[in-house]
Design goal:
Pfam family, one: ABC_tran
Helix content: 25-40%
GO molecular function: ATP binding
Structural class: alpha/beta
CATH topology of one domain: Rossmann fold
Number of strands: 10
Distance between the termini: 33 Å
Family: Belongs to the ABC transporter superfamily.
Order of helices and strands: EEEHEEEHHHHEHEHEEHH
Bound molecules: adenosine-5'-triphosphate
Protein name: Metal ABC transporter ATP-binding protein
Shape: globular
Keywords: ATP-binding, Nucleotide-binding, Transport
Largest sheet: 6 strands, mixed
CATH architecture of one domain: 3-Layer(aba) Sandwich
Oligomer: single chain
């Protein structure tokens, strides 16, 4: 049986005056590829930040690898690429290699020495996202999609067990979105990375994911992708207004 890596138990959260999430409970098992769907402002990014310990719930509990998030000490087991990662302009003074290497500071500490095989690790991380040819380029000279791949390599360099991505295809042109999801599916299948991503690309991602969670303040559905496929568009409209469309 696969291990539960993430669990939320009855989690509620509000910013100063805005109630955002109510009684959220769900589990993510090792090896899952989960897409979190929901309209703008429905609490998806907030949910990810609670999973990462960047925000604390008002009530309920978050567990990582079977432990309360408060006592969990292996933050390097979780790689995170935030929503606005790919926003470097062309003058930003860092190469692709330097950006990827900076992903190790979480593991080794800011002032400690990098491991001897750091260049090999950088190369391996870049290879797994198909970006090894670009390693000497300036990050700001890459397209949005290429930058996003570099940020995934940066998250991968500490060899995390879970990869959490917040709308990773924003800024990627339509033709490249499918190959981007194919790359994530390869990481999921061949490197056994558990992947959680927030996305609006329901249709493009749907042939790659294993699980879906439908969020709008609460969790309306969480389960296998095959079961999500049986949900009617009327039901989705009922949860979301017209914000999430299934197109086949
Ligand atoms: N730092 C904050 N302070 C106060 N309110 C916030 C803050 N961040 C988000 N909110 C509000 O919380 C609600 C949920 O925001 P969140 O970013 O989690 O939604 P989302 O589903 O990720 O949206 P989107 O798809 O637009 O990125 C929104 O109403 C938003 O305005």
């Amino acid at each position: 049986m696969s291990q539960t890596l993430i669990e939320m138990k009855n989690v509620s959260f509000q910013y100063e005056y805005t109630q955002v999430l109510k009684n959220i409970s769900f589990k993510v098992d090792e090896g899952a590829f989960l897409a979190i769907l929901g309209p703008n402002g429905s609490g998806k990014s907030t949910l990810l930040k609670l999973l990462l310990g960047l925000l604390k719930p008002m009530s309920g509990e978050v567990q990582l690898f079977g432990q309360s998030i408060d006592s969990f000490r292996h933050k390097e087991w979780i790689g995170y690429v935030s929503q606005k990662s790919n926003a470097f302009n062309s003058g930003f003074p860092a190469t692709v290699e330097e950006v990827v290497k900076s992903g190790l500071t979480k593991k080794v500490g800011l002032l400690k020495r990098m491991p001897k095989d750091v260049d090999l690790k950088v190369l391996e991380a870049l290879k797994s996202v198909g970006m090894e040819e670009f390693r000497s380029r300036n990050i700001g000279q890459l397209s949005g999609g290429q930058q996003q791949r570099v940020f995934i390599a940066r998250a991968l360099i500490s060899n995390p067990k879970i990869l959490i991505l917040d709308e990773p295809t924003v800024g990627i042109d339509h033709e490249n979105v499918q190959s981007f999801y194919d790359m994530l599916a390869t990481l999921n299948e061949e490197q056994n990375k558990t992947i959680i991503l927030v996305t609006h690309d329901v249709d493009t991602v749907s042939n790659r994911i294993s699980h879906v969670a439908c969020v709008n303040q609460t969790i309306h559905f969480h389960g296998y992708k095959e079961d999500f496929d049986t949900i009617s568009q009327d039901q989705l409209d009922n949860w979301y207004g017209h914000a999430v469309r299934k197109i086949h």
